[in-house]
Amino acid sequence: MINKKEIKRIVVKVGTSTLTYDTGKINLRRMSKLAQVLSDLKNAGVEIALVTSGAIGVGVGKLGLKERPHDTPGRQAAATVGQCELMFLYDKFFGEYGNITGQLLVTKDDFDDEERHRNLHNSFMKLFEYGAIPVINENDSVAVDEIVFGDNDSLSAHVAKIVDADLLIILTDIDGLFSANPREDENAVLIHSVDAITGEILALAGGSGTSRGTGGMITKLHAAQIATAAGIDTVVMNGSDPEEIYKLLDGRQIGTLFKAQGESK
Predict the structure, then answer these.
(1) Cα 205–67–29 angle (5° rounding)?
(2) C-alpha–C-alpha distance, residues 223 and 70, integer Å
(3) How many angstroms separate the CA atoms of 178 and 101, rounded?
(4) In this predicted model, what pLDDT tens digit does every residue of 184-218 receive, in sequence order?
(5) Which end of the chain has less Cβ packing within 10 Å, N or C?
(6) Over 50: is that where the pLDDT of 153 sits?
(7) Average of pLDDT values for 207-231?
(8) Whole-number CA gyration radius for the chain
(9) 92-123 as b/e, with b when 16 or more CB fall inside 10 Å?
(10) Dist. CA 265–CA 263, nearest whole Å
(11) How far apart are CA 162 and CA 98, in angstroms?
(12) Each residue's pLDDT tens digit, 80-134
């Protein structure tokens, strides 16, 4: 159970499947509601960082492509178009609730290189100090490895570590971790809490959830491993109704809570 009083800084990750319709076009109502909820939490004194997927998916929709490009240059081109659209909308929606956003496009090198890691940390801290909401994505347009091998679930965990977050929330198109694939097994049961991510837990994850995203439950479990090892509680929950975040912070059982290892934050 989440203790709301101890939550001062949250990293929220939203996936492509949550941000878009099956058509590939942006789900404007959901995006607006997410901005409203996160702005409200910020008004209540919680610092927010948003890790967003969707640049390639949104670019595919805006360019009118029939499917996600299979070649790297095609994905890079779609990402450049989609990222512009994403940030325009985030700036618009958060601005409607009186908040300023700041874009950070990062690669693995920004976390692995000591000097760049320090500079990135300082950028986050200054954005929080200025009262802005950092919006983070992988720099898909130039970082080939990030497109081919990367996923924003893991990125969100690394962001949670670098900003010393109290909680990581991963929004997806499923209610959490189930005992089996709920799309295939009607007897699958939602697992509300996980004390440790064991081999047995990892075995419950399947493949990619949708054709519009790059990850699946396995990438979310890997992200939870990174974050919980750093002492950060992690929740995987359905992002279809962003107001469920309120219930989560009020102590309700929402999604799957992966408990921080060692000394909890």
Answers:
(1) 75
(2) 25
(3) 34
(4) 888 889 999 999 999 999 988 864 444 434 447 99
(5) N
(6) yes
(7) 76
(8) 17
(9) ebbeeeebebbebbbbbebbeeeeeeeebbeb
(10) 6
(11) 26
(12) 999 999 999 999 999 999 999 999 999 888 898 899 999 999 999 999 999 999 9
Query: Do the Cβ atoms of 58 and 172 come closer than 8 Å?
Result: no
Residue 13 β-bridge partners: 51, 170
Question: Where are the extended beta strands (E) located within the chain?
Answer: 9-14, 47-52, 101-106, 133-138, 167-172, 193-194, 233-238, 256-258
Summarize the confidence of residues 233-245 as an average pLDDT. Answer: 96
CB-based contacts of 186, cutoff 8 Å, min separation 6: none
Q: What angle do CA 88, 152, 174 make, to 5 degrees?
A: 95
131-133-139-141 Cα dihedral, nearest 10 degrees:
-110
How far apart CA 51 and CA 76 sit, in angstroms, is: 19
